[in-house]
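We emphasize that the prediction below concerns an isolated chain of 250 residues; any contacts that depend on oligomerization or on bound cofactors are therefore not represented. The input was used exactly as deposited, without trimming of termini.
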Amino acid sequence: MLKVEGLKKNFHRLEVLKGIDFVIRQGQVVGIIGASGSGKSTLLRCLNLLEIPNAGHFSFGDLSFDMTRVKKQEIMAVRRSTAMVFQQFNLFKYKTALENVMEGLVVVQKKPVPQARAEAEYYLRTVGLTDRMAHYPSQLSGGEQQRVAIARAMALKPAVILFDEPTSALDPEMVGEVLRVIQNLARAGNTLIIVSHEMSFIYEIADHVIFIDNGIILEEGSPREIFVDPREARTKQFLSRFSVFNDFTI
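Result of the prediction step, given as a token string:
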């Protein structure tokens, strides 16, 4: 479904991604883990072409192109087929929860307002926000704002949903409500790519785990292979910082 070969990204002289290769199948849930600054978020932004790579080839459905010579129509095609859920929610602060979800349906997909409203209401109910549709972001908790962001992504019916540390900006008591929504998406067969520091969640939800270190994929495999029996010393060192690591190794 999605194949990346030789993906590189520099910011001036800083080489962030040094040659990334992977394949993601339809319906797969891929967890991406690694230390801060390892290139995880940059990788997601390159997949959505929010950042244009310095090298790499991209295949996605019927699309296939050199990422350094990508055309505007190819960028738009990729963005129509993917949706990003950001760390900081990125909601329009002067629009209600309902209007935030409707925005992409009306502006990007050109759907009639009554249809967009009905679809937005459906997805907000799906994430448990039936009674919060008329509220503005400032009236919502962090967990509720992130659920609005997830409903907005779901409403676009993308082929792939990209999650960039979706719980990092939340208070601990709000993390669970967001993780449950993502878990429901996975159970429904959606294709998800999740960058997260929630190791136990990635272990439970992912079909495939990628460990990025210093701009390269150092190791990848099933959750059990990565969390229980990692091959690389660096992977073991990284996981040892988390209290759940001992649970995985029992």
